[in-house]
Amino acid sequence: MTLLAPRPVHPGRAQGHLPRLLAGLADGSRAGLHLHEATFGPLPLPAEPASAAARRAASRLIDVVERSGLTGRGGAGFPTGRKLRSVAAGHGPAVVVANGCEGEPASRKDRLLLSRAPHLVLDGVALAAFAVGASQAYVAVHAGEERLAAGLEAAVQAREVAGIDPVPVRIVRVEPRYVASEQTAIVQRINDGPGLPTFTPPRTHERGVGGRPTAVNNVETLAHLALIARYGNSWFRQAGVPSAPGTALVTVSGSVARPGVYEIELGTPAGEVLMIAGGPTERPQAILVGGYFGTWLPAEAAWPAPLSHPGLRSVGAAMGAGIIVALPESSCGLAETARVVRYLADESAGQCGPCAFGLPALADALADLAYHGGRGDAAERISRLIRLIEGRGACRHPDGATQLAGSALAAFGDDARWHGRRGPCHGVQRPPVLPVPGDVEYW
Amino acid sequence: MSQRLRVNPIMCAGHGMCAELLPELITLDPWGYPIIARGPVPDELTPMASRAAAACPTLALLIVEEEGR
Lengths: 443, 69
What we know:
The complex is a heterodimer. Chain A has helices at residues 33-40, 52-68, 80-88, 109-116, 118-132, 146-162, 183-190, 219-237, 270-276, 299-302, 309-313, 333-346, 353-372, 378-389, 397-411, 413-422, and strands at 94-99, 134-142, 169-174, 214-218, 240-241, 244-245, 247-254, 260-265, 284-289, 295-298, 323-328. By secondary structure, chain A is an alpha/beta fold. In chain A, strands 8-7-11-9-10 form a 5-stranded mixed beta sheet, with helices on both faces. A 4-stranded parallel beta sheet of chain A has the order 3-2-1-4. A two-stranded antiparallel ribbon of chain A has the order 5-6. In chain A, strand 9 (284-289) and strand 10 (295-298) form a beta hairpin. In chain A, helix 5 crosses helix 8 (219-237). Chain B has a single domain, classed as Alpha-Beta Plaits (2-Layer Sandwich). Chain B contains 2 helices and 4 strands. The N and C termini of chain B lie close together (7 Å). The chains are: A alpha/beta, B alpha+beta. At the A-B interface, helix 13 of A face loops of B.
């Protein structure tokens, strides 16, 4: 079922499933409006958005998204159709926000999508606005990523000239810090606040931008929405697995031959994705899945794990924003974790006591274990701090750090005992594998 | 209907009044911020819970009504 008959055919169908989002793009190129429309066809919106027929089409679009099984690609994996439905049911005109603030240091997929296929994302923004009855839309990107923002502004202008978008779209620049990418923080920033996470309730979908019902969606989610509106829910489910349909962009880094962003079918085993990225350059000891809110898995456990929300949940991990980092055997997972948790502690907004005080303490304990052997009780101190901090922030920032630290204790338990008995291993002197801002870019 | 305690961690400044008034359900972490016991507030403690919420200098302690029990 699509909005407009006849149903177009996705250009990727002739060559199999993939790529979907980046279809029609030569390596490194950017799709302008003309190439975008030549590849995917026009934006499937009714000509008169105010008509009764258009209102029915909006409700049908939400049905199609629900049936497609699309879930958010920003990290939480919430069903997109359900989110759109609750915003559409809210009081008064709604607001749509596309979240293009890629706060995860090891993620590149949103930047890649916004810079190479901006019109696919903007189509998704227009369709989401149509679906929920929005009168205003925003695309949030990090301040300082001026080329990205300028490219988006040019794309929005081109669409204005062509009369494509049903509602005005504004590009907003958000402070490039980790917690500012959180959805309540972005909403507060658009509301001229300081751009920090807020206490819920009120929830964003009930009272967000200007107090209006607000749908905040990751930019990749919206790009999928733009394809689902054209090609239908059955087409979407032709890729992926029944429990996790469709494709996703993943960012692969660490000790692989070709680090970068890849579009994969959901459910693809992590090991296969590492092979798509050229395969390991050194035997991996562990894989970080889900990014800095994510989980260390020992390499043997990670290799067959299906990359999808349900697949990773079954091995105690989470998909996050689709980040996979292969940690080589010569590195020290404890030192890597200590560095990242220090970064996360520094990135705390400092609004909530358990996060403002707990994360530095957790980072200290991890550094003690990694670099000084831990004085015999560091692992216990770390476990105690994790239990103390978990679930006590206004946003999920502290929980991300505790999840990472807890998984490090499990995955690198032998290392922790080794550090305890004999002091830090040789791996702590290796150049870090996990990037934190300020590092030199390595791809 | 049952009642549950919740802290707005952004408002909370760690005064510790709540733990003083309601030690049955609230303890303090090493930095002085409240840790709330899980589950609903027992009926016999609801008056003290209300007092603790009212006494919080930053009004960060909330009593949330929950459906069912």
